[in-house]
Automatic annotation (TrEMBL):
Function: Catalyzes the cross-linking of a glutamate residue and a tyrosine residue in the PqqA protein as part of the biosynthesis of pyrroloquinoline quinone (PQQ).
Catalytic activity: [PQQ precursor protein] + S-adenosyl-L-methionine = E-Y cross-linked-[PQQ precursor protein] + 5'-deoxyadenosine + L-methionine + H(+)
Superkingdom of origin organism: Bacteria
Keyword tags: 4Fe-4S, Iron, Iron-sulfur, Metal-binding, Oxidoreductase, PQQ biosynthesis, S-adenosyl-L-methionine
The enzyme's E.C. designation: 1.21.98.4
Protein name: PqqA peptide cyclase
CC cofactor: [4Fe-4S] cluster
Subunit (UniProt): Interacts with PqqD. The interaction is necessary for activity of PqqE.
Keyword presence, Flavoprotein: no
PANTHER family per UniProt: PQQA PEPTIDE CYCLASE, RADICAL SAM DOMAIN PROTEIN
SUPFAM superfamilies: Radical SAM enzymes
PROSITE patterns in UniProt: MOAA_NIFB_PQQE (PS01305), RADICAL_SAM (PS51918)
Pfam families per record: Radical_SAM, SPASM
Length: 374
């Protein structure tokens, strides 16, 4: 049996409710059927148990975590336990009063996501006419309350050509760190992959412009840090997803299901719920968490690969989504017998697909998907 590490990073998906409808959301397609959110007291228990087990970082995410009215209590409880707390938000629903309240409760970090630099695209992706201006105001407030301003842009085919405007916007807002993360294909993003994956030419241009801006910022002594995250669909080796299965990441979904990563719920295996089992049993003893720990489960070519300690065979969820078997080598790897699927996806990125043709993440579409799956 593989040696088991500590669940250092706890992700609390407080809710699947969200005012936005991003077509690249990583939430499950069937989120409309998942309604039994953990209560405040149940979240307290999760935080207490996780902290006792060695968790140090706690991310509040969703959906949109701001829709939980008990967020200040959850932050305070986590802070008092000694967690480093991070709010991952779209900013919609945030205002000065709330930021002050969260700060008072001990919140350490806020990450605001943007959709694009262009208000029209931003608002269309966000499904709200006010999203863009509101987000700019929030970003400024985050700075006012002396939080490091960390902005996150999910980059895809429909906003990648505005990378320059996006970076300019971040500089204008005096961002400290900007994550330009090319879309990863899980949940709704996988459903919309053909319309979201940038072409190779788009990607190369965006990376070149980002590098030019890095040089300009350095020359101007501007501390703004640009992080450009290349999509694994354009790599030849897979990412070390979650730093290895069940190694440091523990996700708790709104209904209390415990997962080794946010996307694992779709895998054909049982994942326990914090309402039914102690968290330490879930982490150390459950089949779901032990199944892909270590390397004993690996088939060839991973088993004899010299890089298996570096990438752990890639992403189990991606292997499942693309090949139907989570134990397969991640097809991103050029050694995988399924790598042609990635090459095919790259080719498909050359086809035009309008933004309006994407399936937006909302309750109506989620219900339709549920009906179609019977
Ligand atoms: Fe689940 Fe990569 S997202 S293992």
């Amino acid at each position: 049996m593989a040696e088991v590490g500590l669940p250092l990073w706890l992700l609390a998906e407080l809710t699947y409710r969200c005012p936005l409808q991003c077509p690249y959301c990583s939430n499950p397609l069937e989120f409309a059927s998942m309604q039994n959110e953990l209560t405040t007291a149940q979240w307290f228990d999760v935080f207490k148990d996780a902290r006792q087990m060695g968790a140090v970082q706690l991310g509040f995410s969703g959906g949109e975590p701001l829709v939980r009215q008990d967020l200040p209590q959850l932050i305070k409880y986590a802070h008092d336990l000694g967690f480093y707390t991070n709010l991952i938000t779209s900013g919609l629903g945030l205002n000065e009063e709330k930021i002050a309240q969260f700060q008072q409760a001990g919140l350490d970090h806020i990450q605001v996501s943007f959709q694009a630099s262009d208000p029209v695209i931003n608002d269309m992706l966000a499904g709200s006419k006010k999203a863009f201006e509101k987000k700019k105001q929030i970003a400024k407030l985050v700075k006012k309350y002396e939080y490091p301003m960390v902005l996150n842009f999910v980059i895809h085919r429909h906003n990648i050509d505005q990378i320059e405007e996006i970076i300019q916007l971040c500089i204008e807002l005096e961002a400290d760190t900007v994550e330009l993360a090319i879309c990863q294909f899980y949940g709704w993003a996988y459903l919309n992959r053909q319309g979201l994956l940038p072409t190779k030419a788009q990607l190369e241009r965006a990376e070149r412009i980002t590098n030019e801006y890095r040089a300009k910022l350095k020359a101007a002594n501007n501390p703004c840090k640009l992080i450009f995250v290349v999509p694994d669909y354009y790599e030849e080796r897979p990412k070390a997803c979650m730093n290895g299965w069940g190694s440091i990441f523990l996700t708790i979904t709104p209904d209390g299901t415990a997962l080794p990563c946010h996307a694992a719920r779709q895998l054909p295996m049982h994942f326990p719920n914090v309402k039914d089992q102690p968290l330490s049993d879930i982490w150390y003893k459950s089949t779901g968490f032990n199944h892909f720990r270590g390397d004993a489960w690996m088939p060839e070519p991973c088993r004899s690969c010299s890089e298996k300690k570096k990438d752990f065979g890639g992403c189990r969820c991606q292997a499942f989504m693309l090949t139907g078997d989570a134990a397969n080598t991640d097809p991103v790897c050029s050694k995988s017998e399924h790598h042609h699927m990635i090459i095919q996806a790259r080719k498909e990125s050359e086809k035009q697909l309008a933004l309006s043709e994407l399936t937006f993440r909302n309750k109506k579409n989620s219900k339709m998907i549920l009906v179609s799956k019977g």
